[in-house]
Write a structure and sequence with these properties.
It is a single chain. The protein is α/β, with parallel strands linked by helices. It has one domain (about 5-225): Rossmann fold, CATH 3.40.50.10320. The chain has helices at about 15-20, 20-30, 55-70, 90-105, 120-140, 145-150, 180-185, 190-195, 200-210, and strands at about 5-10, 35-40, 75-80, 110, 160-165, 170-175, 220-225. The protein has a seven-stranded mixed sheet with strand order 3-2-1-4-5-7-6, sandwiched between helices. Strand 2, helix 3 and strand 3 form a beta-alpha-beta unit. Helix 3 packs antiparallel against helix 7 (about 180-185) and helix 4 packs across helix 5 (about 120-140). The protein is globular and about 50 Å long. The two termini are about 25 Å apart. The model has no long low-confidence stretch (mean pLDDT about 95).
């Protein structure tokens, strides 16, 4: 049986978690918590280089993600086989998310907020919605995907969901002491941020905005849902 994780982070693409939640991930790891990443797509379309072949990009981005996870202290990274820009709210995808929840049995699931309005990557929207549906009721109910029981994957009830990229934050996380780790983890994604102007300055201003009204300087913001049913 796989050792349970305290937090299971679902992201649509390599680098999403580093932008949205890596300061909090680093803080959880410092507190002795176990964190696992599940990356839902192969990241095979995230480039403007017309000479880059998708299979080469996949290898590059997955290694970048592993390097970023190691920087943060993330225990494990699971890569799902779906193509970038193709995620759908399908039984196949939902079942795979349920499989990961039942495998790692987290207390907290972290994902993209699917209810962000207007401009939002469709993979973020779809992955966030499917994760919410997987948490309740599919991961919880033994009659959902009964073949998973045959694999030894028993139902699991998640305690909390934290949604990053939200326009409706009700929970903020202090990342003042882990901001430098967030920046270092993002710099691992060279294919995505190497030409990003003033990356650290941008991230610092972004984190200051998410700490407004708090006693600390830098933060990350989430919509937090307690799963009580």
């Amino acid at each position: 049986m796989v050792e349970p994780a305290y937090a299971l982070v679902f992201t649509a693409h390599p680098d999403d978690a580093e932008f949205g939640t890596s300061g909090t991930v680093a803080r959880l790891v410092r507190e002795g918590k176990s964190v696992v990443y599940v990356v839902c797509t192969r990241g095979d379309k995230g480039t403007s280089d017309r000479n880059m072949k998708p299979e080469e990009l996949v290898k590059m981005r997955q290694q970048e993600q592993r390097d970023a996870a190691e920087t943060l202290g993330v225990r494990e990274v699971v890569f799902l086989p779906f193509e970038d820009q193709t995620l759908e709210d399908s039984p196949e995808f939902r079942k795979e998310i349920v499989r990961q929840i039942r495998t790692f049995r987290p207390e907290i699931v972290i994902a993209a907020d699917p209810y962000r309005r207007y401009l939002w990557h469709r993979d973020h929207r779809i992955s966030g919605q499917v994760v919410l549906d997987a948490v309740f009721p599919y991961a919880r109910d033994h009659l959902a995907y009964p073949d998973l029981l045959e694999e030894g994957l028993e139902p699991h009830k998640v305690s909390e969901i934290w949604l990053w990229g939200t326009e409706d934050p009700n929970f903020r996380s202090d990342i003042t002491d882990t901001f430098d780790i967030k920046v270092a983890a993002l710099r691992c994604h060279k294919s995505q941020v190497e030409d990003f102007p003033n990356l650290e300055e941008f991230l610092r201003e972004w984190a200051k905005e998410r700490a407004q009204g708090e006693k600390y300087e830098l933060g990350e913001a989430f919509h937090r849902v307690e799963v009580w049913w």
